[in-house]
Design goal:
7-stranded mixed β-sheet, Rossmann fold, alpha/beta, Four Helix Bundle (Hemerythrin (Met), subunit A), binds 5-S-methyl-1-O-phosphono-5-thio-D-ribulose, 2 domains, about 40% helix
Length: about 350
């Protein structure tokens, strides 16, 4: 049985021999292609195009992107280096707006460099590099703890529905929503996962089913519009999804379609859990209404693969995320424990708690 933490598999992000390597997730499940990131523009593009994707993973990629972007600038003095670092962090941050982890990681690296006593560009680059590695390794640990805090929710015989990919591909390891699943599987609990396809970019069918199948977890792909039927048949005992940003009041942004799943879960009396590391909790965003929802290109909706499936010139909307109101959330499984309503109070407590 594959073990949690099995490092033999290809990872979403690696830093090897001073190079940033990203698994091109747009090519999964057909091709496994790892791309070396040569420039900061390439990193920006990889984030924008979803070659690297998932909230924690784009945070880690962004942090390493600053190393890639600054390594030609070691000749600058401290002031100029920090100025350029800030500019480049702002640039990477512009790639995607919804997941807070990207801006969180970039701010963290810039703050670390500013707070350091490093006097030269070379020393500052070292600080940037060390902080990126720290964020990367920390993410692995956060996901592992989410697994430990959520594993007991999955009982033998359970059907678990998930939406999009909040798996190891979306993080440094283990995933967030999938961490309890991997751990339950490792402990020999027999359960089934239903993975929503997650239109329009199919993260559920292309990525979640791929990584769970690879790990030997019993997984079934359904299209998004099948979830109500599958629930009505009594096949789902719980929902676990990931998140791109949790607002201070517990509203949860996640892949478009998540709110629909939460509404269905309420209708059928099924608990709806969100898995989130503290790095995705944003107490500066008061409610879901304050979260910027990324709008993506029309072609993702008007085409299926390369084939056009809507008429030329048709009007299209393509919001990539939606916000599930906190009252539909049974609990948020964090690296620091389970948080439940009232979220405004309890999120503050958990956020400021020691990891
Ligand atoms: O557009 P994507 O593929 O980056 O969206 C990903 C999601 O919505 C995930 O559920 C979320 O980022 C959590 S990943 C642990």
């Amino acid at each position: 049985m594959p073990q949690v933490g099995d490092t033999s598999r290809v990872k979403s992000i690696e830093w090897i021999d001073e190079e940033l390597l990203l698994l091109d997730q747009t090519q999964l499940p057909v091709d496994v292609v790892v791309e070396k990131q040569e420039t900061i523009e390439q990193v920006w593009d990889s984030i924008k195009q979803l070659k690297v994707r998932g909230a924690p993973a784009i945070g880690v990629a962004g942090a390493y992107g600053l190393v890639v972007g600054m390594r030609g600038d070691t000749g600058l003095d401290r002031e100029k280096f920090l100025e350029k670092l800030q500019e480049r962090a702002d640039y990477l941050d512009s790639a995607r707006p919804t997941a807070v982890n990207l801006s969180w990681a970039l701010k963290r690296v810039v703050a670390k460099a500013k707070q350091s006593a490093a006097g030269t560009g070379t020393e500052l680059l070292q600080v940037v590099h060390e902080e990126a590695i720290e964020i990367h390794h920390e993410d692995e640990q956060l996901c592992k703890r989410i697994g430990e805090n959520g594993v007991d929710l999955i009982k033998p015989g359970f059907g678990v529905l998930t939406h999009c990919n909040a798996g190891r591909l979306a993080t440094s390891e283990y995933g967030t929503a999938t961490a309890p699943m991997y751990l339950a599987h490792e402990r020999g609990v027999a359960f089934r996962v239903y993975s929503d396809e997650s239109r329009p970019l199919l993260q559920g069918s292309r990525l979640t089913s791929w990584e769970l199948q690879e790990a030997g977890v019993d997984v079934t792909v359904i299209t998004d519009n099948m979830a109500a039927h599958i629930m009505s048949q009594g096949l789902i005992d719980m929902v676990i999804v990931g998140t791109d940003r949790v607002a201070a009041n517990g509203d949860v942004a996640n892949k478009i379609g998540t709110m629909g799943v939460a509404i269905l879960a309420k209708h059928f009396g099924i608990p709806f859990y969100v898995a989130s590391p503290f790095s995705t909790i944003d107490l500066d965003t008061q409610t879901g209404a304050d979260i910027t929802i990324e709008e993506r290109g029309d072609d993702e909706v008007t085409h299926f693969g390369l084939r056009r499936t809507a008429p030329e010139g048709i009007k299209v909307r393509n919001p990539a995320f939606d916000v599930t109101p906190n009252e539909l959330v049974t609990g948020i499984i964090t690296d620091r424990g389970m948080v439940q309503a009232p979220y405004s109070e309890n999120l503050k407590d958990i956020f400021y708690a020691k990891a």
